[in-house]
Predict the structure.
Amino acid sequence: MSVKIDESWKRLLESEFNSEYFKKLIAFVKEDYSLTKCHPKGSQIFNALDFCPINSLKVVIIGQDPYHGINQANGLCFSVNNGVQHPPSLINIFKEIKDDLGLIYNDNNGDLSKWANQGVMLLNATLTVRDGIAGSHQNKGWEIFTNKVIQIISYETNNTVFLLWGSFAKQKRKLIDTKKHKILESGHPSPLSANRGYWFGNKHFSQCNEYLESIGKNKIDWSL
């Protein structure tokens, strides 16, 4: 299994890569990838880190688990490969951006790598999953690793915007120095939460850009 990860993250996470829990995690992941179908592709597992060197990071969006359907997951939370039907949460994200910023999205394109290339880290708490079985790679060590990533971002950067959607993501607030960073919280974009009034109208995308401009950073182009 060949993986790609930006050099800045290799350096910052060296102690994690050498830890016993991470060695056990990778042994588990390699075995499951060899015995069953898993997502995303091996080369895309660390895309969230590979696309966002630490010095270009502006925004962090936290998801929970990769999509577990065929050809959906691409290593970026909430993102799917081109030509793949948009999952319900992504549909609601696009609806909110349309209401907030007036942007309209192509039904065939749910690949959020354009956001990632601008410094939006799209980080799932668990980076791999077995095909068709949601949560199948949880509690194997990924959460320890991604919590460390969040802590490093909190320590190493200033004025990063964290978008925490839903109760799971909000739990990560304790890992973030709230005096140094901007945190925006709302319900999750999944239909269960969104349809109960906890997602739509949060205006996180305009608020994020207003904050970035207020500290002299270029705003995010949320179009695709």
The CA atoms of residues 82 and 109 lie 5 Å apart. The chain has a mean pLDDT of 96. The first helix runs from residue 7 to 12. The chain is about 35% helix and 10% strand.
